[in-house]
Structures are given as structure tokens and as C-alpha cells.
Amino acid sequence: MAGRIEDYALIGDMQTAALVGTDGSADWLCLPRFDSHAVFARLLGTEEHGFWRIGPAHAGGGDPPVADRRRYRGDSLVLEQEWDTPRGTVRIIDFMPPREGHAPQLVRLVEGVSGRVPMRSTLRMRFSYGWVVPWVHKAGQRTVAVAGPDSVWLDTEADTYGEDLTTYADFTIGAGDRVAFTISWQASHREPPPLPEPEEALRSAEDFWRDWVATCTYHGPYREAVVRSLITLKALTYAPTGGIVAAPTTSLPECLGGMRNWDYRFTWLRDAAITLSSLLRTGYREEARAWREWLLRAVAGDPENLQIMYGIAGERELSEAELSWLPGYENSTPVRVGNGAANQLQLDVYGEVVEALHLGHMTGLARNDYAQLLQIKLIGYLEDHWDEPDEGIWEVRGPRRHFVHSKVMAWVAVDRTVKLIESGEAEGPVDRWRALRDRIHREVCEKGYDAERNTFTQSYGSQELDASLLLIPQMGFLPPDDKRVIGTIEAIQRELSTEDGFVMRYPTSSEQGEDGEMGNVDGLEGEEGAFLACSFWLADDLAMIGRVEEARKLFEKLLSLRNDVGLLAEEWDSTTQRQVGNFPQAFSHVPLIDTALRLTASGAYGV
């Protein structure tokens, strides 16, 4: 059985990533890309679906020992775990060196700290998400596993042997000893990958992360949390194209044992745009430039058919399928790959994309004429479609509605474009679009606001609330001191907060639709946890309306939910006190950075 979601640490090479548990087991790894088939899929199944554990040898059928300590080495993505045993202490260093012309590699260095500790490496490779058992054989001193188009090569000085379709190595590590294990992926029809150089790869990886973090312009009181979040966002960036995945995993459940399980290994324009804004505001212009180039390639000459998400290289076809042979994380089924929401209409995406382009312009990102042309074309499309119902920010699989957040973000798109034209950087029908901006604003305030309760609502005519309404003051739609803004914030605190003070996205319980029939708001069965991004948004809003001490306490409470190496999933289950949802989640780490910046600017932080 896989560990708790928060028991995992992330390592990666900015093209794919692995999750390593406290028991020394790599339980998730897709090769050679984030969205490739998994070689290790124990995370969503059992040991039969692939894993790689290295740790102190243990007798019997009990659970393997968990590490006594673990940490990242400084500001890097190099993971260290240590075990104290009756025979001594051992350390394992796990990392994936950034690719510089070499094959993708996962390197594991076993280092003796004291005494002499018996160790075991258990490598069970299963291709195609645990479905295919590869042909494993020796190629000289190397061990290679081959299935279809894929091959994975194991290199180590330790003696290995095969048993029960698994590759083992039993060895003893003494103080000062170091034994390296490396697996490398290569297309099976090509020549073997070069022999790895683990020690040089470690130096290279540490140098890369040290140099990258040195660019960070944030030096406030929450620097540790901000830097760890920035490293995580960088790790979720697909370096060859600049695309940013929402998370490196699929089908980690929003409700344990439930069906709210989705594939997040794609680039959502919304998630990537807000990630871009955080990177820009902390000094990372190169990532912003790369993402803008990715966006222009993905959209191409067809902005009228803008998708809400694309593949990491800009692929449009992301058809959804279920993997019936995987029992799911803690029996949460179905396990899905691909994402059928790719073809939904989500009008808020136009606002997020335009806001990101606007921020790039405001922070001095080099001018790109096509980016400005794209922005003008997007508004041309939005002008004709902003008043249509859509599926909204949360990708509901129920009927389309006139979501208030979608309309607000349509206003943002038009507002930022009007400002671009007014600056003289672009041309367009500015008078007509000023009138459009005013029309959208007026309609939202008339149809999306409940005067009796003094709150905006999830959609026109709805009684339900939605945490995305917290973005109204942050996007400049209304000032923070507007009574309607304050009323909305307070209503969300009352009606969408959990007992421990975190925020749900929206009520998932049944409501009556326009057709008079009852059904879940999002068209899905079951409940979900508190959405961490929304909880950070609440902290932001509280600071904006002057309740800075309350904002600081909520923010620091949210920081306490991070696991021991500083990572957050998508949601928090207040009942089980566990992280849930895909992990680690960009949409959680971005608002962490944003709130830290806001609280630092306000001076609202503890000593």
C-alpha cells in the first residue's frame, strides 16, 4: 500500500518527476516526460504495479522502516533521508539531474554515516502504469528492462540478482562508504544510454539549484516557504517548451475512496498564468518568457478555439481514459489518464491569460508583437461570447451556468486590453471596449449580487457561494473597502469555512437547478476537502480589508499544513487531517507565494 500523500517528497529534472516516500520507496515515476506512462505506479496500486525501494534490510513480512529524518539539501531538489538502526546510521541521497543532453536519470546514493548497516534495493519495473512486465536481462555489467518502445537501464557497483520478476541488491554499507544506483531511460530501439556519473551529476544538480535560487528577489520573513514553493514550481516546468504542469500526478483523490480523481499532468492556461505571475514578481523573467512562447505556439493562429489546457508541448488532444487494472490510491477509483475537461468552455481563462500578458508587459518583459496581437484577438472573441454560460473555473461537469467569476475575469481581460491600447502599445477599438468593460461590470453587479445577503453569488440567480469570488478585489473589479466585497468575504467565511477555518471551493451538496431538478452543484458524486488555494485567497482578502492580524494567523496556519519538506497537495481533508488531491500542486504553492508577498508588504508577520 502506498504511503499517505504527504509522506512523499518530490524530485525531478524539469521534464518529469518522481515521488519518494519516507520508507525509501520511489512509488511514482513517468518516463521520459511528466505525461508519459508510469514505470512506477505503486502510488495508485500495489507493489505489483512498480516501485523502487532502497533502505535498511528488514526481516519478515512487516512494513519496511521509515526514515528518522529527511530534508532537501539546502535550497535544492536533492533529497536526503537518514535511518538510525541498531547497527548504525545510513543516508540515501535521491535526485534527478537536470538534463543537459543526457538520458533522463534517477540517481540514488547510499552513504554510510556510522556503523555497518545491511541494505537492500528492490527494483520492480512495470511499464504502462503497471500493466506490462518488461523483459529484464543483463547487458554486460548493466541490467536493462525492455518493453515496447521503452527501455530502462540500471547501473550500480552493487551485485544484483533477479527473483520473482524483481531486481534485488543486498549489500552492507559502512561508515564513509558510498554506493550509487542509477536508472536511465532510453528509447528501446536506440543505442544504450551512456554510463552515468553519479557524483558529477550530484554536483551539477546542486550547482543548478543554487544558481537558480540566487535569482530570487524575495528576502522577507517567509523566505523558506516562498523559496521551497518556487523550487516546486520550477520543478513542474517542462524545460524544453516552457509548459507548466498543474501537478506531476494523476488520480490522487480529492476525497479518499471517492471518484473525484483527475489527471493533472497538463498545462492549464489558468494555472500556468498564475504561476507565471508569481515567478515574475520574484525575479524569474526567463520562465515568463518561455511560457509566453509556449502559449503562442499552443494557441497558434486559432485563438477562437482557445482550450483551457494543453499538453506540455502544446498538444490539443487530451482524451480521457480509465485504467481499470489499477485499484486507485486507497481504493479511490477510477484512475484516469487524459482529461476530458480540455474541451470545456471556461471564459475566465481569457482573463487569466490576458492578466499574465499584462503583468509581463508591466514588469518589462521584452516586447512580442504576436503576443499583443493574440491579446487583441482574444478580446475580439470574448466580445462576442462573454455573455454565454460556461463550465467555470472549477470545471463542473454539470450544466453550464453564468458563473460570476467567469464574468469578472472577462472584465479583467477587457480592462487590461483597454489599458494596453491606452498606453500606445497596441491598437484597437478602445471606445467600444471601454463600453464593453462597463457593460460587463454593470451586469455582474446587477445579476451576480444578492443585495439581501450582501454577497456576490456563484452564478446569476444562485443562492450558492463560491470561493472564487474572493478574487474580486484582487483583480481590481471592486475596491477592497466596497461593502459588497466585505460582505462577500464575510459570507464565505460563514458558509464555506470548515471547522478549522479553511475554505471550501463551493458547497458540493445538492441544489435546485434552473430546470427545477435537484443535483450536485458540480455534477459529481461525493464531497471534497478544503481547497488550499481558496484558503490563501481568504488570507489575502483579509489583509486587503485591514484585518491583517487575522490574515497572518490564517496564513501561518496554512503553512503548518505543509509536509515536513514543505510541499502541499491540492486540498486538506479536515476530518482525517490529511492532504488530498494531486501532489504537489502548483495551484496551492502559487497563492502561498502571493500571500507571503502581500503580508510582507503590509508588515503583517510574526517575529
TrEMBL record:
Database matches in Gene3D superfamilies: 1.50.10.10
Chain ranges of the GH15-like domain: 220-596
Reaction equations catalysed: alpha,alpha-trehalose + H2O = alpha-D-glucose + beta-D-glucose
Keyword annotations: Carbohydrate metabolism, Glycosidase, Hydrolase
Class in the EC hierarchy, top level: hydrolase
Pathway recorded for this protein: Glycan degradation; trehalose degradation; D-glucose from alpha,alpha-trehalose: step 1/1
GO terms of molecular function: alpha,alpha-trehalase activity
Listed EC numbers: 3.2.1.28
Domain Trehalase-like N-terminal: 2-131
The keyword tRNA processing belongs to this UniProt entry's keyword annotation: no
Biological process annotations from GO: trehalose catabolic process
Statement: the UniProt record of this protein carries the keyword GTP-binding: no
Pfam families: Glyco_hydro_15, TREH_N
InterPro entries: 6-hairpin_glycosidase_sf, 6hp_glycosidase-like_sf, GH15-like, Trehalase-like_N
Entry's transmembrane regions: none
Family indicated by similarity: Belongs to the glycosyl hydrolase 15 family.
SUPFAM superfamilies: Six-hairpin glycosidases
Protein name per its UniProtKB record: Trehalase
Cofactor: phosphate
